[in-house]
Amino acid sequence: MKKMHIVALVLIAVAIATLISFMGDVTSYDTIASAKNKPGKHVNLVAELDKSKPLIYDPVKDPNYLKFTAIDTLRNSIDVVYHNSIPTDMQKSERLVLKGYVENGTFECKEILLKCPSKYKDDMNETEKNINSGNGYGNDKNNTAAETKKP
């Protein structure tokens, strides 16, 4: 066997080992129902804060205890306990990514990531109105950007 073949085989083996090591870091998101079926196993939930239920946080009594109810996209709910201070603007957040595990029917959260509302979100009614009135971004005769000439 030539030295070049041996080097190529070693490089292929290193590439396969690297890919396999990164496979353990792949993150999957679970629903609340599937997380309840995996008690004690680390999962990531995408949910939102249930604003109809109380958020329990008393920084004077215990600044490292937060309890709230989360709802996933399938409208399942679970009580969440987070042993840290409340994240800033959590009540304004559209979505929460909760990392932790289910224990005794409660989600023991280790980390909370917030997805804040986008300031770039389009109002669909306003967009449709602009398109219908000819003030959109289409190639129509009212579009002055298409008519500008280079100096």
Residue runs with pLDDT of under 50 for 5 or more positions: 139-150
Query: Count of DSSP helices?
Result: 4
Question: In which order are the strands of the major sheet placed?
Answer: 2-3-4-6-5
Question: CATH homologous superfamily name of the domain at 28-115?
Answer: Nucleic acid-binding proteins
- The name of the CATH architecture of the domain at 28-115 is Beta Barrel
Extended strand count: 6
Average per-residue pLDDT, rounded, comes to 81
Strand-and-helix sequence, N→C?
A: HEHEEEEEHH
Please characterize this protein's 3D structure.
By secondary structure, the protein is α/β, with parallel strands linked by helices. The protein has a domain at 28-115: OB fold (Dihydrolipoamide Acetyltransferase, E2P) (Beta Barrel), CATH 2.40.50.140. The chain has four helices and six strands. Strands 2-3-4-6-5 form a five-stranded mixed beta barrel. The radius of gyration is 25 Å and the shape is extended. Mean pLDDT is 81; it is low at 139-150.
